[in-house]
């Protein structure tokens, strides 16, 4: 599949890259605060959520592909894990409204390109790559089902 | 002049009670000249969400590690970092953080490599401070820079390299990772990012004592009799032992290093910070899979 960065993810990248390293952390914190609560139907079904083991903090995701082929990513992480929440929030916002094909075409190394490797460290960025990788895997499973 | 020690009776049982302070003591001593409080977390944004008043942030990835080589910063880098945070060579430093002080202990271990004399942990870290209803602020202090001397790191006593561990085989090793990592059960599945090591398992003869066993429910360190039961009776460590602890990248094992050295008083404990991400990818080093420690290979 050809890789292409969807419009919203590209915009988020522009926003980060326009800032100094220190301010990028503040922007990540804003994303973190914007992570939406899980929809009610999942709050009562923790069994549906997949734990992203690569993140040291407990973060869980669940992916839906609706009748129109639009992907909905839900993620939850505790407030004690603001960085992980920030990563999840970037993906939730950046993937909103995209089709399964568009999500699958997001480059796997997108997390490395948004100017956070220096501010956050490459090791921690791996957590975001894991989130993206597992999201895409769930999308593949859902459309194959 | 070091700031006075915390006289709390529950600390007196430990081998080096001067290495811990309670939240009560810290709250009462905030702002004392000669004291700097440092927050060090797994999560790089947690400090920004709120921290102890006056505390400065030191991040182990972005501050204590060399950005290019897999090593810690050098004496010059350490002097620059600490000076900028308002820490002098004789400053009393109290470190605290998230996850049972996991990363705080790591920072303390790095401070110890540079021989910073008076560095203590806040017992219970962030979790206990919060549970006790103590305050946070989001105001970031602007410390007046001071001079910190350039002191070169001494890795010889507290740090083990891979070759040291090979030479150490036959002496006690403590693997502080989870039982699944120790046995080598955890492997890479399709579409899952790799775990950072090419092989799974543990170093032959290592005892598996997950690091968090040393911590009580409330985040504080367990009392000495319980720690003895875990490390002496359980893992068979004896007075006078030469011990190496390791985990995946050396962070969890610096927590165990702290427990063995400062709480139980073992005098020769080294942290192998290369840990599994180095050992599990190194060529021709012995590895054992499964729940049993396994025998020391004959050489």
UniProtKB/TrEMBL annotation, chain A:
Q: Where are the transmembrane segments?
A: none
Fetch the Pfam families from UniProt: SufE
Gene3D superfamilies (alphabetical): 3.90.1010.10
- Fe-S metabolism associated domain segment(s): 14-137
Output the InterPro entries linked to this UniProt entry: Fe-S_metab-assoc_dom
Write out the similarity annotation.
Belongs to the SufE family.
Q: What is this protein called?
A: SufE family protein
Source species: Antiquaquibacter soli
UniProtKB/TrEMBL annotation, chain B:
**Chain ranges of the Rhodanese domain:** 31-138, 173-288
Q: Which InterPro entries match?
A: Rhodanese-like_dom, Rhodanese-like_dom_sf, Thiosulfate_sulfurtransferase, Thiosulphate_STrfase_CS
Q: Which domain of life is it from?
A: Bacteria
Annotated signal sequence range: none
Enumerate the GO terms in the molecular function aspect.
Answer: transferase activity
The protein's UniProt keywords, in alphabetical order, are: Repeat, Transferase
Query: Cross-referenced PROSITE patterns, in alphabetical order?
Result: RHODANESE_2, RHODANESE_3
Offer one Pfam family short name for this entry: Rhodanese
Tell me what reaction this enzyme catalyses: thiosulfate + hydrogen cyanide = thiocyanate + sulfite + 2 H(+)
The name this protein goes by in its record: Sulfurtransferase
Organism for this UniProt entry:
Antiquaquibacter soli
């Amino acid at each position: 599949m050809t890789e292409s960065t969807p419009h919203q993810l590209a915009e988020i990248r522009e926003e980060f890259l326009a800032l100094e390293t220190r301010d990028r952390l503040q922007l990540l914190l804003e994303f973190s605060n914007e992570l939406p609560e899980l929809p009610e139907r999942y709050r009562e079904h923790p069994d549906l959520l997949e734990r992203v083991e690569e993140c040291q903090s407990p973060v869980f995701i669940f992916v839906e592909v609706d009748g129109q082929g639009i992907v909905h990513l839900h993620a939850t992480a505790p407030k004690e894990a603001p960085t992980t929440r920030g990563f999840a929030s970037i993906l939730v916002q950046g993937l909103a409204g995209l089709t399964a094909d568009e999500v699958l075409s997001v480059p796997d190394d997108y997390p490395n390109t948004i100017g956070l490797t220096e501010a956050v460290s490459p090791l921690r960025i791996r957590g975001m790559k894991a989130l993206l990788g597992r999201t895409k895997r769930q999308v593949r499973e859902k459309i194959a089902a | 002049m070091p700031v006075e020690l915390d006289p709390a009776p529950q600390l007196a049982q430990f081998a080096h009670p001067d290495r811990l302070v309670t939240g009560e003591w810290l709250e009462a001593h905030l702002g004392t000249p000669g004291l700097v409080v440092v927050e060090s977390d797994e999560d790089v944004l947690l400090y920004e969400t709120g921290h102890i008043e006056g505390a400065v942030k030191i991040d182990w990835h972005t501050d204590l590690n060399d950005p290019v080589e897999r090593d810690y910063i050098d004496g010059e880098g350490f002097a620059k970092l600490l000076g900028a945070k308002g820490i002098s060579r004789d400053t009393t430093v109290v470190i605290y953080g998230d996850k049972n002080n996991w990363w705080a202990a790591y920072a303390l271990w790095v401070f110890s490599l540079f021989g910073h004399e008076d560095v203590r942990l806040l017992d219970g870290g962030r979790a206990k401070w919060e549970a006790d209803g103590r305050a946070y602020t989001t105001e970031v202090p602007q410390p007046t820079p001071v001079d910190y001397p350039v002191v070169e790191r001494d890795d010889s006593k507290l740090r083990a390299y891979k070759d040291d561990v090979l030479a150490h085989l036959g002496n006690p090793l403590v693997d502080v990772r989870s039982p699944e990592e120790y046995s080598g059960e955890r492997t890479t599945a399709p579409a899952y990012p790799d775990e950072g090591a090419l092989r799974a398992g543990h170093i032959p003869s290592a005892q598996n004592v997950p690091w968090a066993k040393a911590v009580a429910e409330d985040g504080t360190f367990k009392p000495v009799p319980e720690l003895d039961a875990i490390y002496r009776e359980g893992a068979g460590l004896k007075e006078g032992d030469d011990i190496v602890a390791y985990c995946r990248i050396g962070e969890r094992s610096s927590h165990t290093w702290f427990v063995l050295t400062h709480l139980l008083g073992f005098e020769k404990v080294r942290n192998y910070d290369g840990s599994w991400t180095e050992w599990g990818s190194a060529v021709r080093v012995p590895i054992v899979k499964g729940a049993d420690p396994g025998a020391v290979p004959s050489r």
